[in-house]
Amino acid sequence: MLNEKGFSRRHDTQKSIDIVTIKMGGFYVTDKNETISTTLGSCIAVCIRDRNSGIGGMNHFLLPTYSSKEEQQWENTSVSAATRYGSYAMEYLINSILSKGGKRNFLEFKLFGGGNITGSFASVGKHNVQFIREYMETEGYGIAAESLGGSHPIIVNYNPRTGTAKIKRLAHMASEIATIERSFMQELKEKRIEGDVELF
User: Region 38-59: what's the mean pLDDT?
Assistant: First the structure.
């Protein structure tokens, strides 16, 4: 479910820059002057760049948590599928940045999403926020900026070259995005997570 091909591209003629939109479960890395964009509800997007070279990218992930019983198991099991999936989403993005020439010591992290967007689905956002905070602390990464939680979906626009990240709240799209996330979560439930990923 991690797919660097899960994106579309368009050219903003007014700003004279390409805008790459990544889909749920996708990620994108670039060494060019581009804007990376995604829409988030309960999901998390992490924007990472080498602040010296400007090589960077964004991921968009949703932890596979489905019921209150499984949510409790997720909280109490350090090697659960949910934790492993979130770690994979982070490691694939970091690996791709390093493989393009980024340096680990210069990585800069910005965190977005994890909204409590609708009723019973709201706890998913909370778990996603909990995961990414714990991941960052465990791995020893600092957080340059964040906008986590909240009650509305958001659009994130990020330029790794400059490090600029901007968000726009979408109050009217909560129900639509929650439906898309439920469908994606069902896909995650049916997918087997593969073996370990080795970091460069």
Answer: 95
User: Does residue 183 form part of some domain?
Assistant: yes
The residues that bridge with 11 in the sheet, in sequence order, are 18
Residue 164 inside a domain? The answer is yes
User: For position 119, what pLDDT does the model report?
Assistant: 58
Strands (E) across the chain are located at: 7-12, 17-22, 27-30, 35-40, 44-50, 56-59, 107-113, 145-148, 154-159, 164-169
pLDDT, the chain, mean: 81
Under a CB-based contact definition with an 8 Å cutoff, are residues 154 and 166 in contact?
no
CATH number of the structural domain spanning residue 22: 3.30.1330.200
- pLDDT score of 34: 96
Residue 195: CB partners within 8 Å, gap ≥ 6? none
Residue 5, SS3 per DSSP? coil
Residue 195, domain member (yes or no): no
- Per-residue model confidence (pLDDT) at position 72: 47
pLDDT given at position 163? 97
Does residue 2 lie within any of the structural domains?
Answer: no
What is the distance between the alpha carbons of residues 193 and 104, in angstroms, rounded to a whole number? Answer: 25
Number of domains into which the chain is organized: 1
Full domain range(s) for residue 61: 7-189
